[in-house]
Amino acid sequence: LGTIPAGKTSHELICHVDLLASMASLLKTKLPAGAGEDSFDCLPALLKEKLDKPCRESLIKQAGYVQGLSIRKGNWKLIPATNKKKITELFNLADDLQEKNNLAEKNPEKAKNLKEEIQWNRAIKRASGEKVKDNVELLKKGMKKKEKMKNKSKKKWEGRVKEVEEKKKQK
To answer: Quick check: 104 and 88 in contact, CB under 8 A?
Structure first.
């Protein structure tokens, strides 16, 4: 195994839940079925290896209140309005790491797209409780539920289904 280079930084989006899959990868072992359903192997990023694609495209997490979810995708973070929190907040973390400048009104399309991604993810997870990232049938069901998605978003999920199918063929 390699070592983590001193003084190096990574711009990969990594969450504490990714430690499970990453440590399994480090130990060259497979996780049991159903374990770490939302854990991604980020070991290559930790070892500063060149990545063909990001470890994860987005991160959906609890936003600090019951039923509140937020999403981080690239430099953007969205905290949608809920019954308890009446306003939607959108931040560009590249320019505003302290989250002081709410850009939701200036970027309604970005806010809408990120909110749809939270809703899609929530619907899929509730539909089965199964491992979403590698379950082709579940991804296809989610696509059917979101037929009204914009072509851009739909193409992204179709690409993900194709990627997962190809990955399964390689196993």
So the answer is: yes
Centre a 10 Å sphere on the Cβ of residue 124 and count the other Cβ atoms it contains: 19
Tens-digit pLDDT profile for residues 63-109 = 565 567 889 999 999 998 876 778 899 999 999 999 999 999 999 99
**What is the Cβ-side half-sphere exposure of residue 128, based on CA atoms within 13 angstroms?**
17
Structure tokens at 98: 């302290």
Question: Closest Cα to residue 136, out of 155, 163, 171, 170?
Answer: 163
- Residues contacting 122, CB < 8 A, separation 6+: 69
Helix ranges (DSSP H) in the chain: 18-26, 43-46, 108-128, 136-145, 151-170
Instruction: Check: pTM over 0.85? Answer yes or no.
Output: no
- pLDDT of 55 higher than 90: no
Q: Exposed, middle or buried by CB within 10 Å (0-12, 13-18, 19+), for 54? A: middle
